[in-house]
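TL;DR need structure tokens for one chain.
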Amino acid sequence: MTKKRVADLMEWFRPAGIGIVIFCSYYYGHDAVSHFHIMGPFVVMLMSGTVAFESLVLGAAASEKIGYGSHRPSQIQSGLANAATAVTALLVYLLNWGRHADATVVAVMLLFFTFSAANHVGSAIVERNMKTVNLLRPVMTLLLLGLLVPPLIKALNQ
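>> reply
TL;DR here they are.
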């Protein structure tokens, strides 16, 4: 399988994975805190982990899919930052650091993707980057915010 094909499959893997994570969080969790303890870190591992994989392993294929140029040093730097976020989410989950740690790692990921979405909008406006994946990133970020912020608030208020 080519890197381009794997990069394309990531766009389907992420939403499917999030659906499975949300289902599992409600199936195995028994209250708002336990739902979010499963949902939050696992969505972060999925999202930040796949972005790290794309940046570090798929390189030019991932950049081309979005309509960006391939600037390897900054792509590697971004990939390592996302890998750090994903590994932190794994530690938060495995070591059961509590709902505030769950909320923190989710907030960091959501902030990154919100800033990244603004960058995608800027790319569409300034550089006329009208590739479908580039245009969908802000929409997907809004969906991610809508999926994670309500359970985050519920878990913190319990």
